[in-house]
Amino acid sequence: MQSSQNVESHDGLSAETKQIIIEQPSLPFVSNDMAIDLMENLIADKEEQRIVIEVMAESRLQSVHYALVALIMLMLGGLVLCSKLPKRSLMSTE
Q1: Where are the alpha helices (DSSP H) in 1-94?
Q2: pLDDT tens sequence across 39-49
Q3: Would you give the DSSP letter of residue 12?
Q4: How far, in Å, CA of 53 to CA of 32, rounded?
């Protein structure tokens, strides 16, 4: 979703290219080479393909950042929950 919004707001793309990207149900999370292969039939201009690739790469990087933040939050939550565990073994027969 973020890729489509970034493409829509980019000044270096023609209105036709923006419309093609927006009409896609989803932009795949693929490598740059695979994205170029997918775009060859849709977008003829190589410069516009390069711009779309840059926008998709920025979106992938942003997605990784969001995933890392979510992972850190889960780890911190787990640490907080684990701090409430008993300090002694429940298996001992004392």
Answers
A1: 2-9, 15-23, 32-39, 46-82
A2: 887 777 888 88
A3: T
A4: 6
